[in-house]
Amino acid sequence: MGYVSAVTAQRLKFGGYHMQTKTLSNGVTIPMLGFGTYQIRNSDVSEAIKGAMAAGYRHYDCAHIYGNEAAIGEAFQASGVKREDLFITSKVWNADQGYDKTLAAFEQTAKDLQTDYLDLYLIHWPNEKNFDLTLDTWRALETLYKQKKVRAIGVSNFSEDQLNQVFDMAEVRPMVNQIERHPYKVQAELGQFDIDHDIVNEGYSPIGHGHMILEDPKINQIAQAHGKTPAQVVLRWQIDTGFVIFPKSSKVARVQENFDIFDFELSADEIKTINALDQDKHLNYD
């Protein structure tokens, strides 16, 4: 039936809010809607996290290269939300790849985020010039997983071929692949490959930075039918097709709007309409 109808998400009460979730291959539960922290300035982090917490977000997607993990850690502490009610993701950056450097990078991220463990740790990008270095990085993630310093491990921006190379050497297979995904980059083949190999899909840039996507007449027509905004329809499409997502906004009203997507679902025909907008168009680095 394909990945379009492959959602096996549950609706659970997560952090006090009803949230659709996915279950990773090792049994860890991940909220399908998270809050992205890319390009949030340190001076804005406190208010951004405060607003996201108030809206109901408990899943936060972070990365060392974003340069704001220390500020995010302070905001987590100030929120008063229990650590066990949060799902925190971070990623090891290209310059920190390699076994020993990855272990050191994790310790720095954990220190900055003021946590003893991460819920999910990802390789941010495959090393295009030296993939053996990326495989060493994967071994480090396996070590962190075995030491219970991370609850789940995965990759980001990996192709089918790169994933197969990881499969060939891995003791623990990737549980997540985070990839660019929006209506102009549907990722049907890679998304299905991930599902076939028990990998949960995550989609970054879920509304494509708003690049004409939110002005598309077909998306607007669907939005009007549901009494929702175009952004809410695109985010709902992501979840209805099985992708974990983490939109970002520094505007409180938009943060709340993005969270308000669990009271409707798209029909199969509406999902097909949005899928048909695919242009295989990267809006980020390929």
TrEMBL record:
| A GO molecular function held by the record | oxidoreductase activity, acting on the CH-OH group of donors, NAD or NADP as acceptor
Gene3D superfamilies registered for this protein in UniProt: NADP-dependent oxidoreductase domain
Entry keywords, A to Z: NADP, Oxidoreductase
Domain NADP-dependent oxidoreductase, first and last residues per copy: 33-278
Q: Where is this site: Lowers pKa of active site Tyr?
A: K91
The record ties this protein, via PROSITE patterns, to: ALDOKETO_REDUCTASE_2
Pfam families documented for this protein: Aldo_ket_red
Q: Where does substrate bind?
A: H124
**Which residue spans adopt a coiled-coil conformation according to this UniProt entry?**
none
The protein's matches in InterPro entries, at most eight in alphabetical order, are given as: AKR (IPR020471), Aldo/ket_reductase_CS (IPR018170), NAD(P)_OxRdtase_dom_sf (IPR036812), NADP_OxRdtase_dom (IPR023210)
Active site residues of this protein: Y66 (proton donor)
Q: Which family does it belong to?
A: Belongs to the aldo/keto reductase family.
Protein name (database record): Aldo keto reductase
- Tell me which species this is from: Levilactobacillus namurensis DSM 19117
